[in-house]
Amino acid sequence: MTERRSAPAGRTGGKLLADALVAQGVTHAFCVPGESYLDLLDGLYSVRNRLQLVTCRFEAGAVHMAEAHGKLTGKPGVAIVTRGPGACHAAIGVHVAFQDSTPLVLLVGQIPVDETDRETFQEVDYRQMFGPLAKWVTQIDDEKRIPELMAHAFDVATSGRPGPVVVAISEEMQKRLATVPDIGPAEVLPAHPAPDALPRLMDMLGKAKKPLAILGGSRWTEQGRADIRDWLLANDLPVAVAFRRMGLFDGTSPNYVGDLGVGADAGLVAKAKESDLIIAIGTRIGEPVSQGYTLFDMAGATPIVHVYPDQAEIGRVYRPALGVVSEVNAFAAAAKAAGAVKKPAWSAWTKDLRAARVAQAAPQDYEGPLNLATALQELEKVLPKDTIFTTDAGNFATWPNRFMHFSEKQDFLGPTNGAMGYSVPAAIGAKITHPDRAVIAFVGDGGFMMTGQEIATAFHHSVNPVILVFNNQMYGTIRMYQERTYPHRVSGTALTNPDFAKFIDAFGGHGEIVERTEELVPAVQRALASGKPAIVEVRTNPEQVTNRATIADLRAQAATAAAGVANPVPAQASRVPAPRRTGPRTR
């Protein structure tokens, strides 16, 4: 049983809130301070030896850090922001946590209750604002209910499908005194598969000829990842990962066949459509994974076994042949115990899918002095085996997805909702969570300029992530779509950037510029060895707008389509050298 301790008499609401966080096992909270929660800040001062308060520079950055902490630990990340503009800035991070199924608790300072509905200074109704973005939104106006409502917030964030909870805390409530006991976490056993779930799954698997497993979701433990790996390998199953879930399965394994998401290999997508049994574990089979809901027949022509912790998500779009309501780690343990099919009929199928993955990961002969595919593959060889990677949204992100092989002990954090500005604060949050592990962030020039100022937080809290900024001087993804639809009509997608190496140098960090293939590995090694927050600016060829096509290719394809010709030009058919930019390579 969870022990409940009597609280000292007369604690303020602010102190009760701080103690409630400690009672729930919170070790880090990420904030931008505001006058709407001064009493909570004072309460956090009292628990500073048990809970580290991380001061950030922008509310979206604070929530991204908390979300990364939640992804890595499986426990709710905690962010604290002020009312009105602070809450609005934080909303994007809440949306990330919602679509990524990451446990998160966001505390928002609120106006005095007696000023409600007067449109007082910075007044917002957070139930309406965050209602579509969060699992639950509440407001605490009675200080005596703080332990109860805070405990429930953490329960909701981690139950079923994990996600964000928003708790508004009214200003005067934090000042009032109350005598109530703290409430710790509830001990709730995870949902396990029904008794006949695994026998039925194994029977379906035994009849399959072309099965495919898809791993996704959140709150996987190290043991759960090991258990599901053992079961998948014992059955020689081909394994794909859902969008930006590369950390769930060893990319160097002969059973890894690639990622299903934005920029997925067309060969893997075609094979998935051929499959006669899909085993979807932890993934919602959402829009990126399903390739815009085109991958499978919604009525169930392709048999799908859908394993998910929330029954409401099973069959939401695709009707499964078998739905299994189970927490992912509990399912992994049960699957491992179920063993293997005696004579798998798909060994050649698995080898075929793996061969396609290996072929599409082979670097092409890209134009210019920097072959990013080759450089990234050389980089993966020298990085620590427990490196944490974070990524932003953008076309640049398809390069590491396609060409790198993330190994078993590594973690990969990315926003499945496609939020730009995620990677830099997520890398800082990851480094604060695991200071002894190397953290490498992938971010485009557009995304960096959205939240790159959070590098100040890394200096303030003495952590040293390495940020790789891929600079092509444009919003590359939008330019790609623009050239496909309106070729030659460039509008709103060009960018003017600073010298990113000088940017980090102004903080006293380590900065480098990379323009050639052979420069990336030594630059990152020097950055890691510096012991400082670091930026490695990777100047890429703006003509190479994707890893499969140039701008000239896209324009030619658009012209071909406009002319009604059936066969578009192949990717890489036209090559234009990258413009040379002057500037020192190292700062």
UniProtKB/TrEMBL annotation:
Q: Which CDD domains match?
A: TPP_enzymes (cd00568), TPP_PYR_POX_like (cd07035)
Xref: InterPro entries: DHS-like_NAD/FAD-binding_dom, THDP-binding, Thiamin_PyroP_enz_cen_dom, Thiamin_PyroP_enz_TPP-bd_dom, TPP-bd_CS, TPP_enz, TPP_enzyme_TPP-bd
Alphabetical keyword list? Thiamine pyrophosphate
Residues in Thiamine pyrophosphate enzyme TPP-binding domain copies: 392-538
Task: Give every Thiamine pyrophosphate enzyme central domain span.
Answer: 200-333
Q: Which residues form the Thiamine pyrophosphate enzyme N-terminal TPP-binding domain?
A: 12-128
What's one Pfam family the UniProt record gives for this protein? TPP_enzyme_N
- List, alphabetically, the GO terms of the cellular component aspect: acetolactate synthase complex
List compositional bias (Low complexity) regions by residue number: 563-573
Location of region: Disordered: 563-587
Record-stated family: Belongs to the TPP enzyme family.
Designated name of the protein: Thiamine pyrophosphate-binding protein
